[in-house]
Amino acid sequence: MSSKVCIAVHGGAGVLDQNEMDEELKKLYGEGLSLAVQKGHQILLNGGSAIDAVASAVTALEDNPLFNAGRGSVFTFEGKQEMDASLMDGSNFKAGSVAMVRNVRNPIQLARKVMDESPYVLLAGTGAEEFAKSKDLPFEPDSYFFNEKRYKQWQAVKDSGFHRLDDRAPKNLGTVGAVALDQKGNLAAGTSTGGMTNKRYGRIGDSPLIGAGTYADNQHCAVSCTGHGEFFIRVVAAYDVVAGMSYGNLTLKESTDLVVMKKLLEMGGEGGLIAIDRSGNIALPFNAEGMYRGWIDLDGVMHVAIYSNELTMNNEQ
Amino acid sequence: MSSKVCIAVHGGAGVLDQNEMDEELKKLYGEGLSLAVQKGHQILLNGGSAIDAVASAVTALEDNPLFNAGRGSVFTFEGKQEMDASLMDGSNFKAGSVAMVRNVRNPIQLARKVMDESPYVLLAGTGAEEFAKSKDLPFEPDSYFFNEKRYKQWQAVKDSGFHRLDDRAPKNLGTVGAVALDQKGNLAAGTSTGGMTNKRYGRIGDSPLIGAGTYADNQHCAVSCTGHGEFFIRVVAAYDVVAGMSYGNLTLKESTDLVVMKKLLEMGGEGGLIAIDRSGNIALPFNAEGMYRGWIDLDGVMHVAIYSNELTMNNEQ
Lengths: 317, 317
Fold this sequence. Notes:
- The structure is a homodimer.
- By secondary structure, chain A is of the alpha+beta class.
- Chain A has one domain (6-316): (Glycosyl)asparaginase (Glutamine Phosphoribosylpyrophosphate, subunit 1, domain 1), CATH 3.60.20.30.
- The first copy, chain A, is built from nine helices and 13 strands.
- In chain A, strands 4-3-2-6-5-1-12-13 form an eight-stranded mixed beta sheet. A four-stranded antiparallel beta sheet of chain A has the order 8-9-10-11.
- In chain A, helix 1 (23-45) runs antiparallel to helix 2, helix 2 packs antiparallel against helix 3 (107-117) and helix 8 crosses helix 9 (252-267).
């Protein structure tokens, strides 16, 4: 039993181009990431569980309109927010997830209820909302989720004809997530998203899918992904990191690099992931221009970064 | 390039107790499995692709009211049929899946359209139905899906109070699926289901989830699962068979046994899977009382079985 803890969060691999990013905005992103990672870390320091730390950190990111999850979710083709979230407890392989939910204030808290208080793993749509109501989870009106910037993004895309199902659809790699190691050596992971701008036809990405967007196994690692979801589903990205370690005896760095820098890259799957192993090593690889990320390592030192040229990508010790 | 082909299908691990099964019913199940496996096999013999053979075999099972998929789907809590399906082409890692679709005659054909004619992998609910309409796929009225036996099953469960979200919910492991190896050495897998009787809250199982219920990779194997979906999701069952072979150098039999007879069994996850590797080995392990299954091996010999005491479980050569 280790008394050392660590945690990492991401705010998506869909970062602004460096020339569009100004210092003030950068500061806001940094503050959002810091707040989330510190909230989770405080729980870990107090002896709380990894799953509680993950849920708390993801909730903080969902509440921040800067990130594409919860309050800051993008608009669908119909001009709505449809959110997905999942989380997994590496101590017992329990998992919960929700897809296509509307007006639920914190989808990650709903995923937690699915895990803790239902025999199911994945609930979707109005059925999942009905379950949320039965558990008295807070709902918010559309106005809570309305965001001028997201609305303009959607209008721009909608007007330019990108609402069709074709490859010209714009990339939107916005997601949030967290992974944590607690004092008892338990690992957990969670992910939440508003999905792709202007998504249509009930499209679901990797974020709510256990194995694709989220996975945790105490014996190996906890993983939360962000990126072009269809590719992450096809390579079963989050679980593949675990499989590389469990069957292939790869290190966390080797296994995450294989998935992000080789398998996904060769397929054209843009994005990244955050992962923590049972020894508290942290890996945060991405093959995009950047990935909003923050972490507090085993020594309690906090790091925040956006682009690849700001800090070394991995922080393994 | 091998000119040898093989194919396997399943009709679910939720078989009738042997004392409830009479000879006439057994014959009907056997005919349904034979028809499906022969349809797929004929495509393979004619030089068709594994993905076409899988789609054809699964379509035949969806059209048969005996199996819990397509026409024979069970009733949800609201007294509707909500169907899930997925398929994957091991030659290029392309995949398509649909969840919670109603009135679509063949969900596996819709999953195929998602794979072939959209940039998405997973579409759900009314959005997926809208996509189906845009592709002119056939829809059927509720009466097409109405089945006296399923209706009585649902009524019995509903009246006995099993509609609540608790562990007393009855097991329903009905699913159909197919895996195939074609003359070019390509592997493919597909799965389709009506889900759990009396399911509620938009519950989605493993069948439409790439990695959990379905996976195919030409270098290793193609897998279609059937069983208590929540457990198959948590162990990422279909992809885990591939991972055991790719990272762990396990044989098909070793890898499928590890997943079904150890990982799932220890967790309490009842069910089974069918798998074919690149050499044409077939494995059909299950930890339930039986699994409706049929296969045609590399020598062109057809086999059909339901219970474990009828035939050896695996047919590796």
